[in-house]
Amino acid sequence: MALRWTLARLPDLGPLDVYEMLALRSEVFVVEQTCIFQDADGVDHQAHHLLGRDAQGRLQALLRIVDPGVKYAEPSIGRVISAAAVRRTGVGRELMAEGIRSCQRLWAGQGIRISAQARLERFYQGFGFRTVTEPYLEDDIPHVEMLLEPDTTL
Fold it and tell me: How many Å is the maximal CA-CA distance in the chain?
């Protein structure tokens, strides 16, 4: 499935983009994963948002790229989501690859750090990320920090 990608800072997104982004994040993280947490964490203002829309304009995938120095010394990728309707179609891989390329364009020569759900560790290893911490709980879900070295290309 080919998606049309938009990469923008929060103030540059339209109201409908922001609404759909927050709705999809809530649908997946709060409803599907039954995880009560503060999604509006103040970090969205210090990040680029990558939105993937299908040919009909429906938001199918998204992630945020957080500026270096906000969560980690390196830029980081988080809030990685593909809509339920497009899972197992390769959209998640396409999303992550586009996110890594975007991050590398924005901050060439820097590594990328993520806080990954432990169950997705192998998925991220497929992009060259290596696990750099022991598992820990974040919002009662096991996570690990992973790092993609600066010289990794897709």
Answer: 42
Task: Dig out the tokens for 5 from the structure.
Answer: 């990608």
Q: Where are the domains of the chain?
A: 4-148
Check whether 124 has a pLDDT greater than 80. Answer: yes
| Of 34, 92, 15, residue with least CA distance to 60 | 92
* pLDDT score of 151 more than 80: no
Correct CATH for 4-148 of 3.40.605.10, 3.40.50.2300, 3.40.630.30, 3.10.28.10: 3.40.630.30
pTM equals: 0.93
What is the rounded CA–CA span in Å between residue 90 and residue 88? 6
